[in-house]
Amino acid sequence: MKILITTDVYAPVINGVVTSIMNLKRELEKLGHEVRVLTLSNEIKSYVEKDVTYISSLGVGKIYPGARVTISKKCKYLKELMEWRPDVIHSQCEFSTFRLAKHLAKSLHVPIIHTYHTVYEDYTHYFSPKQSWGKAMVAFFSKKVLKHATTVIAPTEKVSTLLQGYGVKRPIKVIPTGIDLSVYKQGNAMQARKDVRNQLNIPEKNRVLIFVGRLAKEKNLEEVLSNFSRVKLEDMSLLIVGDGPHRQALEEYARKLNIEDNVIFTGMVDPKELPPYYQAADIFVSASNSETQGLTYIEALASGLPALCRKDPCLTNVIEDGTNGGLFETFEEFERHLEKMLCDQEEYRYLSIHAKKKAYENYSSTAFAKSLESVYYDAIELFHPTENVVYVNNSGINQ
């Protein structure tokens, strides 16, 4: 099968969506499929690198930091993709490349599968003076875009419920995003833990809380910093791994709370270098309620870290209170969970074991790719029900 993945962002950009796309591409290729990516160039020039087509674009950072758009639907590189003739298009963004996906799908008469990654309601502060207006705009926009998809993929039940509330009528399938968890299998974990702590000047006796992700307003890291400043436990460090437009404000807030000596901002870390950072920590923390996939939550669980997170529907079936972590809505709940995790060794060991078990049983990138492969075949059959086409791949024969 020939599969075209379209996305507004791709490597060298690093974020959860890009990571999930790269994992999916790799796993689909392992299953014997031919996969290409159509994305936006970060300059006013189109080009192709291996199996990735970059289309010229312009920066529109005033809408959202790092956002880019293209208006071109005619160029030799798009013509080359049409001549390649993909069997299915899997779009990952709702803007410029979705418009290109629609153009290609209509011309080639092939289905569009669309993954709805982002809960835009949580980002209305970037484009709307009133939250209620912003939510209404998001509902209207999402319904209008998704009517062009054959099937919509929702990473969580939260997203599925949200889309149904918007009035989306297309079939919605909930498929949790898969992660390549092999890199999080602990080899020499103790040495990795020691090396990172030495590098960051974290005392050996300190217990370390870690957050990994983009430093943006919607991640609600102020609540993590505030809770950390109020906890009465001694010998603790907070490790914040990542970068983003809100970093300076967070550093200033840490100074305001007089905890700057116990909070380490690492800046951007290459995803390939992340495992030792998780191994250097004891507990993963987050107060975000804007997640649709929570890839870093799964990475942390796979590393054996219990997760202490603000309660949110996106974490249903991911973080189980008292099994692989704890959920909080107030500081008192945060403090109670943290004290129990750090002061009760048997409790911590139980949570750690079940954290790894949950991650490896439910969120592998291989299982994710196979689930989507099935969705692709169903969509192609819907578009071409009378064609007796046989696809051969490593997992067998699909007709």
Automatic annotation (TrEMBL):
Transmembrane segments: none annotated. Residues 14-182 form the Glycosyltransferase subfamily 4-like N-terminal domain. SUPFAM superfamilies: UDP-Glycosyltransferase/glycogen phosphorylase. CDD domains: GT4_UGDG-like. Pfam families: Glyco_transf_4, Glycos_transf_1. Gene3D superfamilies: Glycogen Phosphorylase B. InterPro entries: Glyco_trans_1 (IPR001296), Glyco_trans_4-like_N (IPR028098), Glycosyltransferase_grp1 (IPR050194). Residues 194-357 form the Glycosyl transferase family domain. It comes from the Bacteria. This is Glycosyltransferase family 4 protein. It comes from Oceanobacillus kapialis.
